[in-house]
Structures are given as structure tokens and as C-alpha cells.
Amino acid sequence: MLLCNYLFYKGYELGIKTKAFEDIPILGGVLAVGMWIVLNLQSILLLLFYFYHISPPPINRYIGVFVFVNTLLIYYSYKGRGRKIVERFDQMNHPIYRLSPFIAVFGSLMIASIILAFVGFYINEFKLLTSILNF
Q1: What is the DSSP letter of 58?
Q2: What is the DSSP letter of 53?
Q3: Is the pLDDT of residue 133 over 80?
Q4: Which helix (H) or strand (E) covers residue 135, if one does?
Q5: Among 15, 46, 64, 134, which residue's CB has the most CB atoms within a 10 Å radius?
């Protein structure tokens, strides 16, 4: 949960610095956490579907995204939880908390994307990767 809160804080900072979310600054944090959760959840589900030979349930993707984003918005808006997270991280003086928001958000999303790529390579028995390396 600490990593999600840190990503929320850095996404919030990134939204404030870019002035993209001036009206709803909590949305910047929600988008950073949401993308990270989706990438990691997708890698876990791909492995589960591969090993247990089950097919994913038919869910309308628009309804699923709407429910997911609203759940995160409600979670971070409930009783000012997002504001408390931002205030708590602002008070900490550790150097890792002073890292650039772009580096923190982009780095975590890149790591999650690399993990997802390796899961995909594993499921396809590294056929694409070996064909690229043998070229």
C-alpha cells in the first residue's frame, strides 16, 4: 500500500506541476495508481489464464474502466484520504520522497510494462524474442 500511496503522491505532484489537473488534482494521482495497478493485474491474470487454461469473463471494457476509475476516485476522496497522503509525504524529508514526479511515475510504469512484456514472452515461449535476437 505504501507504493500505491507514493505513486498517488507523485501523480498528484505531476498533475500540479503540469497544470493538467488544476480543477481536480486528485485525478493525477488516481491515473498514476490506476495505470500501475492495471499493468500489474494484467500480468497476473495472463499467467493465471495461461497456467489454469481458463478464459477471461466477458466484461464490457468501458463499464469495467468506468467502475475501476470511480472506485479509485472514491477510495482517495473518502474522508480526505488523498489530502492526508499528500500532507504526510510532504512532511517526510527522505531523499527518495524528493525524487522528480516524472521519474517516479514513469519509472514505475516502465518496470510494470517490462514485467508484462516478459510475461507475454513467457506465454509465447520467447518466440518473438528469439527471432529478434537471431536476426
Answers
A1: -
A2: T
A3: no
A4: none
A5: 15
How far, rounded to the nearest angstrom, does the alpha carbon of residue 44 sit from its chain's CA centroid? 14
- pLDDT digit string (tens) for 43-60? 998 888 888 888 777 878
The H or E element spanning position 54 is: none
Read off the C-alpha cell for 71. Answer: 472506485
Q: What is d(CA 19, CA 35) in angstroms, rounded to the nearest whole number?
A: 20
The CA R_g of the chain, rounded to the nearest whole Å, is: 18
Q: H or E element: which one contains 49? A: helix 26-52
* Rounded percentage of the chain residues whose pLDDT exceeds 70: 93
* Cα–Cα distance for residue pair 19/116, rounded to 1 Å: 31
Listing DSSP states for 78-133 in one string gives GGGHHHHHHHHHHH---GGGGS-HHHHHHHHHHHHHHHHHHHHHHHTTTHHHHHHH
